[in-house]
Amino acid sequence: MPEESILSDDFVRELMNVGDVDIVVGVPTFNDARSVGQVVQAVRAGLLKHFPRERSVIINADGGSRDGTQDMVRAAAISDLSVASDVHALRTLHSISTQYEGGPANGIAMHTILAATDLLQARACAIVSPESTTLEPDWMERLLRPVLREGNDLVLPIYRRPKFDGLLIRNLVFPMAKTLYGCTVREPYPADFAFSGELGSQFLSQDIWNQEQGRRGTELWMTLWAAIGKRKLVQSFLGTKTRREDAPSDLVAAMRETAGTLFISLDTYSALWHLTPELLEVPCLGCEPSISDGPSRLNRKRLYDMFTFGVKELDPVFLSILTSPTHDELKRLAGLPEEKFTYSGELWARTVYEFAIAFHKAIIGRDHIVQALVPLFRGRAHTFLTQNRDSSPEQMESKIDLLCKEFEQEKPHLTELWDGGK
Amino acid sequence: MAAQDGLWYKDAVVYQVHVRAFYDSSGDGNGDFRGLAQKLDYLQELGINTIWLMPFFPSPLRDDGYDIADYRTVNPTYGTLDDFKAFLEAAHQRSIRVIIEMVLNHTSDQHPWFQESRSSRDNPRRDWYVWSDTDTKYKGTRLIFVDTELSNWAWDPVSKQYYWHRFFSHQPDLNYDNPQVREEMWDIMKFWLQMGVDAFRLDAVPYLVEREGTNCENLPETHEIIKDLRVRMDREFPGRMLLAEANQWPTDLRAYFGNGDEFNMAFHFPLMPRMFMGLKLEDRKPITEILKQTPEIPENCQWCLFLRNHDELTLEMVTDMERDYMYDEYAKDKAMRLNLGIRRRLAPLLDNDRRRIELMNGLLMSLPGTPIIYYGDEIGMGDNVNLGDRHGVRTPMQWEGGWNGGFSPADPEALYSPLMLNPVYGFQAINVQSQKRFEHSLLSWMKLLIRVRKTTPVLGRGSIQFLYPANHRVLAYTRRLGNETVLVVNNLSSKAQAVELELKEFRGSILIEMFGRNIFPRIGDLPYLLTLGPYQFFWFRLRRI
User: Fold this and answer.
1) Radius of gyration over every alpha carbon of chain A, rounded to an integer in angstroms
2) Vertex A392: Cα angle to A391 and A393 (nearest 5)
3) Which residues is B538 bridged to in the sheet?
């Protein structure tokens, strides 16, 4: 493999055989054999149903699976070699798979897919998560049509999620992205999304692919980059999204991908977020209520315990990161019994901002800073669950809006610290 | 012509021509047999070795001659029976065989048989056609001319019954349950065979017999009739040939070959639109898939391939999705659509793109079957969709840039059809005379193509194996006959393509490009890498030296 290329020679040979296309559907995977087959079948059905005339290819960028993930993707191909296929298609639908080096890392997968999209001169690229088991064929239309037919640059999803899914997005990513950059999209860190070939080429040409954002949190970086660049964004309601029951839940990794990426962005866009951002209106196509009722699978008691334990265990770390009032308040909270425990939005916003400053100043190792935010987030999640236990979806939306306001109100605190105070 | 080789039709390159449209020797505005005979040298030079004549019988011409009013003579507009005989003899002298039309299924309503039949219910010929008191029989039968007909039954006000017609209502179907009809039709065929015609194209064969509870197509009784005709023809006129016009799926068509005892040849209707589809999609899948679905046929039988003909580009044998695609890509103007098809000639269909025209003709000449060239397509003639029905693809042959395009000395107003006049396809731009002058004209290239095809029997008689390279824009196959192998590689794409061909089986062979006779590298162990320009194709002879 050429040293400077993300694409292996074998993969390039496969791309050569595909030739130029209209649509790329990228599927980043790592040991997803249990669900990827179902997802890819739905993608294939969606392409055949909604884009039968477009040249399409499904590209799987795999991080080194050993469970047959790649075979399941390849099986989705439709060609004149298929024997007794029950699928009728006008043209060949390629489905190819490559293993990238240095994985697993979603950013490298994204880089691979972007490079392939660029080489194939695709007009549109959709990325789908191999864990999106609720993905329906119509999602392809909802993701790709706004790019192909309506000239949008980036299509972000809106899902109908169970009430307490996406807590990190709702409590951290969404309010922070909105406050700092005016980015009002509900899923700024999308699992399933689409973009134009042109925007894909611009992503590809950015100097991030050897940096942290180029390894993880890349999708969030892409959203922010497009929003800040005032590209034409649109949200598209896809449908219900649920997590796979057996999907691994790694909050530390998620915190790295989200908070880590946001904190890095503060350095990049310092001049921008110091100003009051103009809110970016992002229309929503086919939007329906995005929160569905349902029982929470989260154990609040456990969240509370992990918070109090974390505050105790990481006190020296917090002392170096947080201002005294914030540190004291957190210590006070950790001493409260669960029934009296409330991690307010205001305090949470201050906490996040102070972590961002610590990250900026690299007071300690940046990864340690991000990891240290995890137990505090659990405390915030506990409060969010408690406050919304009986909320209707509309009431919950209001509370998320309120949280955004608290992030805005606390923004001067961030600015002040950034500009030299402590 | 002597029938030295009973399988001559496998090596044939057929030229389809309408007498009326080719050359007018009498100056009345209509082509005629004397005119056609005068142009035989042109056809010989083109390289074709078989002529297929569209109907030339007396007819009210409400379906361009497929509505026959007398089967035993020539429409006086086109000359006399003697003129036909002279033409036939002149063609044979040039080793050109002649296929004529035989419309078995129906006659014109002006045919004396029908006039007698309708004259009264007691007339001896009453039972020569299919009559009914109701129009509800054979309900399961589809309508073919959906744009013009509302029913397969038409009311006859004279004898006050309905008569059956699968095509236009002025074309009543003959009743093949009547032995007299069968005998009479054989007698007519014998009449022409005795004169020396080499083959018949039997029109609309699937519809000869009707049975309640069926779709009245491809019935066993129909096959029996064909078999009977074939037995008689082989016995009395060995070496002659029957060609089926049956617009059916390959599996249904297969039955018309029987055990090699029905038709010698049949048109491969479903392949043709898929060639256009594959070209537009830049994907070989439509072509390879339909050929994979095409069953083996008996050794003495052959498919007949064509790109365009006198009818619309039929889209009956495609799915709804495919039809929509074809309409959108090849007939954006609704005036170009007729029935379930597209009434356009080859060159306009392909946007007059010389590379695509060459590629499609290359496919026509290299896929398994006997190729048919529709008159005028060898020079890239255009069409006139304003002429109604399918007349737009039946305009006069364009011989030169002068008066009436050299077709006729008559006043232009007297021509059977207006000439093409537009600056792109008009006779002043597209004509034989100007194309003869240039080595690189389409006409010159077509001559080369036919000449190269005729250098080997493999393309006419060989088997086919597809190669399926990973690059789906490339359609590659080998044709084999005995020890001889031809490799055909076609780039269906508008862009240059690289392709790796798995040719290990031929390791050690040298590729000789058949048009320039240039040598290409020897085949080794690695996949054979070729690069092809937009719409380029190669024919290679594989030689072990």
Assistant:
1) 22
2) 115
3) B489
| Amino acid letter, residue A323 | T
CA-to-CA separations, B151 to B147, B154, B340, in angstroms, rounded: 11, 7, 16
What ipTM was reported for this prediction?
Answer: 0.77
Decide: A6 and A112 in contact? Cβ < 8 Å.
Answer: yes
Helix (H, G, I), strand (E, B) or coil at A199: helix
- The dihedral over CA atoms of B272, B146, B222, B53, expressed in degrees to the nearest 10, equals -50
Is B281 close to A89, i.e. CB distance below 8 A? no
Q: Which of A49, A92, A96 to mutate to test the interface with B (most CBs of B within 10 A)?
A: A92
d(CA B473, CA B534): 11
- Active-site positions of B read 203, 245
* Cβ proximity of B176 and B127 under 8 Å: no
Cα A22 from chain centroid (whole Å): 25
Q: Using alpha carbons only, how large is chain B's radius of gyration in Å?
A: 23
Work out the average pLDDT over B13-28: 97
Given this model, what pLDDT does residue A245 score?
62
| CB contact (8 A) between residue B284 and residue A19 | no
pTM, two decimals, is 0.86
Percent of chain B topping pLDDT 90: 86
Q: How far apart are CA B37 and CA B31, in angstroms?
A: 11
Q: How far apart are the first and last CA of chain B?
A: 39
All residues at 6 or more sequence positions from B424 whose CB lies less than 8 Å from its CB, including other chains: B352, B382, B430
With CA atoms as reference, report the closest residue to A182 among A409, A414, A404, A419: A404
pLDDT, tens only, A194-240: 999 999 999 999 999 999 889 999 999 999 999 999 999 999 999 98
- Give the CA distances from residue B56 to residues B37, B39, B87, B198, in Å, rounded to whole numbers and listed in that order: 14, 17, 13, 16
> A126 to chain B, minimum CA–CA distance in Å?
22
